[in-house]
Amino acid sequence: MEFKLIAEYFDKLERISSRIQITSLLTDLFKKSDKDVIDKVIYIIQGKLWPDFYGYPEIGLGEKLMIKALSIGINVKEDTIEAELKKVGDLGEVAYRLKKSGSGTTILTFLGASSSSPLTVEEVYNSLSKIALAEGEGSRDVKIRSLAGLLKKADPLEAKYIIRFIDGRLRVGIGDATIMDALANAYGGGPHARPIIERAYNLRADLGNIAKVVASEGIEALKNLKPEVGIPIRPMLAERLNDPVEILSKVGGQALVDYKYDGERAQIHKKGNEIYIFSRRLENITKQYPDVRDYVKDYIDADEVIIEGEIVAIDKESGDILPFQELMHRKRKNDIHEAVEEYPVNVYLFDLMYYNGEDYTLKPLPERRKKLEEIIKPNDKLHVAHHIFTDDVEKLKEYFYQAISEGAEGIMVKAVGKDSIYQAGARGFLWIKLKRDYQSEMADSVDLVVVGAFYGRGKRGGKLSSLLMAAYDPETDTFYTVCKVASGFSDAELDELQKKLMEIKMDSKDPRVESEMEPDIWVQPKYVAEVIGAEITLSPQHTCCKGQVSKEAGLSIRFPRFIRWRDDKSVEEATTPQEILEMYKLKLKKKEDSSGETQPS
Ligand code: ATP
């Protein structure tokens, strides 16, 4: 197929703005395109060489290098090109004008001695790919030479669009939706084929691939299209509601309720030992998570599978889940192996879309979940998301509080009926998110009293490393629990802590302590520690201010960290529940003022 055809259509497309006309021109172009290069035609129209999820480099050729290549290609001095560019402001247009005017034409070309065969789409595509992929020593020359070669052969219009493509300025303004309309007209017999094409695109987010299938095998082949390992599925998205009663009724009265983890969404593809991880935006993020790739290799029992989950940062010592921001360290670190060591992650899986040749997207959620559970071998890195099945609003509320008190962002309430398919690429009420609006950022630290302690896990196994902390209410002379603190201690502080706590260990709870948690050891309220967290949030597990904001839950600190001991304070001088309530209300008010969001009732 000649590249000229594309250039001519680009030229026509540039002159019109009506969507109907654009679709009709595109339909013509597709009809005239060769089936074996239709994928490349689509990518070029999209202004790229391949789908983003390949993770291949973009073409990345600066203006200086393009001018150099053009100068060699058309045999015109760089100065002349630069001067023209100043006037015209578009290097594509400059190339067009110079070629058209015959500048740089030698006597040999004039006589036709060096005339060559017309440029093909394949040739242009291959040269552009070579330019994009060249790296390392000598790559600059390779890029210039390849482009110069193309421009030499190109006619004026072709040169214009080759340069504009590289420059990222095609300006033909064609989105995926229009491409799908045109594909439906060209290969599917008309607009009625559009939903079939869209469904296929949702399953394989690669329009080049979809075009190739429909062009060479027909629309029927698309109807039966399955997801393919290596090509991401467009993600299913959730609606948001705040009223648990409404949420449950929307999903049909019964639901699978998952913790909503606060991490990075990951769509994981596996074919034997080949593993790809795609982000929410379908970028290839496999390189950032070599550990996750290994876990999938070791613990997922399937030849071919596509699963989905949330990658969550984990506290190295306690194993508790950490806020999303912690994952950012991974992206910033150059040394990925060091980052893996320093910022470990767990994966909480929540769906399965494809398994050993079978498309699972059209199966109801319980069936997908069952298969997911079956293929995970016992391990402590990859888990199915924490969940319950319920038809009871009270249980749902309780579970919401439990989720946030354990560091989750809220819950995902999911339909479980016959129609509870995986709606690729769509946002709907089959999944509804209930997030903690009940939150209040914590600007100030608080001073809390140690009333109990828990033994750690992993490296901290056998050591008391998590402290049950309480606020003190002088009115009732009672200690009300607020949070468990497990991070922020240095190794030396941790060692010292063992001695400190064993000295004040009690056989049972101090009568002044009000707690719903049962720590491994109780201690006499003696030490005060300064603690800061991400925010103050509701939690059913803690007794501080229970009943004052919500019937079921008290106030707690999310992601608390130890700052230092406050030996200068007696336990009676610790922060009071009243103060924590004030902090909570103050921030909450500010948040409402600015966002206008309502709270779940
Ligand atoms: P959206 O993804 O809906 O456009 P968003 O990007 O703002 O919105 P959220 O509102 O936080 O994200 O909610 C959706 C995200 O929650 C999902 O994309 C996914 O990454 C995450 N998530 C965490 N846990 C789950 C779960 N158990 N099931 C589904 N999604 C979950």
From TrEMBL:
It comes from the Archaea. The keyword ATP-binding applies. Keywords: ATP-binding, Cell cycle, Cell division, DNA damage, DNA recombination, DNA repair, DNA replication, Ligase, Magnesium, Metal-binding, Nucleotide-binding. The active site is at 260 (n6-amp-lysine intermediate). NCBIfam families: dnl1 (TIGR00574). HAMAP family: DNA_ligase. This is DNA ligase. It comes from Stygiolobus azoricus.
